[in-house]
Design goal:
- By secondary structure, the chain is of the alpha+beta class.
- Among the domains are: 205 residues, no CATH class; 96 residues, Alpha-Beta Plaits (2-Layer Sandwich); 59 residues, Alpha-Beta Plaits (2-Layer Sandwich), CATH 3.30.70.
- It has 28 helices and ten strands.
- Strands 3-2-4-1-5 form a five-stranded antiparallel β-sheet, with helices on one face. The protein has a five-stranded antiparallel β-sheet with strand order 8-7-9-6-10.
- Helix 5 packs antiparallel against helix 10, helix 6 packs antiparallel against helix 7 and helix 10 runs antiparallel to helix 26.
- The longest helix has 26 residues.
- Keywords: Membrane, Repeat, Transmembrane, Transmembrane helix, Transport.
- It is found in: Membrane.
- Pfam families: CitMHS, TrkA_C.
- GO terms for molecular function: monoatomic cation transmembrane transporter activity.
- InterPro entries: Cit_transptr-like_dom, DASS-Related_Transporters, RCK_C, RCK_C_sf.
Amino acid sequence: MPFGISAGAAFVFLVILAALILFATEPVPVDITALGVLVALLLVEPLSATAADLGLLAEPLVVLSDPAEGLSVTDNGLSGFASSATLTVLAMFILSEGVQRTGVVQILGSKIASFTRDSESRQLGAIIGVVSPISGFINNTAAVAILLPMVTDLAHEGKTSPSKLLLPLSYASMFGGMLTLIGTSTNILASELSGRLIGRTFTMFEFTQLGVVVSIVGTIYLLTVGRWLTPERIPVAEDLTEEFELGEYLTEVVVREDSPMVGETVRGALADTEFDVDLVQLIRGDRTFTEPLDPKTIRAGDVFAVRTDRDTLVALSDAEGLDLLPEVDVDEAELEQANERENLVEVVIAPGSSLVGESLASANFRQRYDATVLALRRGQELFRQRMDDVRLRVGDTLLIQGPPDSIERLNANRDFIVAQEIDRPDYRRSKIPVAIAIVGAVVGAAAVGVLPIVVAALTGALLMVLTGCLKSTEVYDAVQWDVIFLLAGVIPLGIALENTGGADLIADLVVGSATFLPPLGVLALMYLVTALLTNIISNNASVVLMIPVAVEAARQLGVDTFSFILAVTFAASTAFMTPVGYQTNLFVYGPGGYRFSDYLRVGTPLQLIFAAVTTLGIYAFWGL
């Protein structure tokens, strides 16, 4: 092979290139890409060995097997599923869910609301001050999912644009996740890789001092420069219909006596229509009905609130015998008059949702959830008509109107994050001390070395069920299986990169390109390369690819390998520059109405500041 690259290394680089493209463009979910990588690595050795036996290849492509360790291709290839990192992350999802089910975070949110009132500075300070420490002890993705409704409500009640608060929420959860080993799945994975490569894993509070430093710096930035740079994409509005600019798309019509719709059910009347229209509310006399409207029989004199555009409304009125009611504003108050409880909410499509890639029509959304989608927001793009065929993505925000029981079902469904606080009767508030004690015991046992983190976390997960903080039927729903399969799929890729010498080759390039840089400069370069990579692909994939390179680069320079591992770990968990670099950025993309460029504008300075602070902090605390 040219340039001294072995056939095995060349194959691994091709797999990495394909994986990077698929991770960045996401034609399929990232966990499916990771499984594809795993299958490719498992197949290449036996197939190439057969080809070599037939004379088609000079020698087999040895990618995963390690004769020195007595490990076969299957052993190494499937090691991701048996990895302590994978099992620890799985257990941490269960622990986070146990805490969430008690409602303790929601109680904390209500305390914040009473303190901050309408001060944006107080709101920002309180949000950052709460999400950062919480993210150190429960998964930071879960922390944002739990707090997002509280922050959205805080913005509406305090007359602040949600855009000013949601991006800081995401960023603060990221640097808060660097306070402890268990703050993010990336830390846990990096610890296992460090143990395998240099024989040193992370302790529970291994890098807490540096995590505190970057958290303080990040907080100062978000309260000053970041606050100025963060745009106000969504105007301050108390009314959700105003926020989604639905003034021209919502109106009321009355059914005339000569209407062909009289005597038909709502579903039957609209079954074959080509009009882009939704009947969202029925007013009959002094009674108001919301979903499910499909079985209602239409009568003359019925008044319907409809979602459609003006041109369609004119054509619909002529064809179906409807009269427009003049001088009627269909706003949030009008749509909620049927119920004492909230029935107009924003709903975010969550990572791993079964609706990703589906449309409202293909998912049969209205019949399936007894709710009507009035508008769809993707970043700053608003869809208020012809929404049925739009393919849904993670982070899409739906404005939904439906009865309270439908909203409660959506709130309990892991496919969605309801972006307003919904009072859930199933919170187990009596279990708050128990859940907190279990998490504290897990942290304490791992911190003092009584138990390995994987054993402590699995024990804690079991205790969550045995003590009633979680029901046994809720355990599997608590786990983000896409993250688990992603970890299991990419861990063998790192092994292949090491076994084929690919990590050595990349390290040669890094060290060679840094000829005129001191070791501290190479450390900063390693941080920046990882940060750029993690803003495009998964943070876990970045760690798997870059830690072997960092270790080899440090060895070539004759400096401390652990310091280089820490630089990669911190960089991989701080993806500030794109909405796709980290799940929490996607969570807030729709509710904040952001543009892609907003992440570059606010996140790039923070990324560069963190590059300097982290590398200097590593040098100060651990040396080189």
